[in-house]
Amino acid sequence: MREVGLAAGAAAIAVAASLSTVTPAYADDFGVALNGTYRVMSDGEWAKRGMAPGGADVFFDQKTVEQTWTISTECVSPIECSGTVQSDLGWTGTIRLKDFWYVDHDVPNWLPCPDGSFAPGHQKFILLGWDPTINQRMTKNTDFLMGRDQTKGPSGACGSNQPVVIEMPVKVQKI
């Protein structure tokens, strides 16, 4: 009888110990989540437009765009995260991690057409963490990211068979 009591007591201690060491799933961001406020700069000096014959990129000056993002993400693994981005320029988009960080949103009335109308665009930011001190890219750097800001109009917009694509380098820094 005494052994049964000891066994039951040991089992109760083991169960209590295992429950006290369980970490809630939401508490771990796997070191990759992007959360907080970020300063974003899309460098128009290096903008390129992929409309040349043969697909060659043509550089042309665009306005440099600076904005502030508020990012909220949740990660279910070190390679799978999703959430939202709110820009101080008035748009809200989705963000997801899949090899790179992708931020997507639609831009109404983006492309002016010769007839005075406008076509929509889709803007995608493709980002990866960057450590400038060692000149190396890494997913786990959540304070400084670099990549591309790409906006694309639909094929057929403004009577043109090719989509208009404008791309510029972008940097994102936590503030």
Name its key features.
single chain, 175 residues, mainly beta, eight-stranded antiparallel barrel, 1 helix, globular
Per-chain topology:
Blueprint: H1 2-20, E1 36-42, E2 48-49, E3 58-59, E4 65-77, E5 80-87, E6 92-98, E7 100-112, E8 118-131, E9 136-137, E10 144-152, E11 165-174
Antiparallel strand pairs: 1-4, 1-11, 2-3, 2-11, 4-5, 5-6, 6-7, 7-8, 8-9, 8-10, 10-11
Task: Provide a descriptive summary of the structure in words.
- By secondary structure, this protein is mostly beta strands.
- 11% of the residues lie in helices and 50% in strands.
- The protein has one domain.
- It is built from 1 helix and 11 strands, in the order αβββββββββββ.
- The longest helix is centred in the N-terminal third of the chain and has 19 residues, at 2-20.
- It starts with a helix and ends with a strand.
- Mean pLDDT is 82; it is low at 6-26.
Count of discrete structural domains = 1
How much helix, percentage-wise, in residues?
10-25%
In one word, what is the shape? globular
The number of helical segments is: 1
> Would you report the number of β strands?
11
Q: Widest sheet: strand order?
A: 1-4-5-6-7-8-10-11
Beta-strand proportion: over 45%
Tell me the structural class: mainly beta
Report the end-to-end length measured between terminal Cα atoms.
Answer: 65 Å
Radius of gyration: 24 Å
Q: Could you spell the SSE succession in H and E letters?
A: HEEEEEEEEEEE
The residue ranges in which pLDDT falls below 50 over 5 or more consecutive positions are 6-26
Mean pLDDT: 82
Biggest beta sheet attributes: 8 strands, antiparallel, barrel
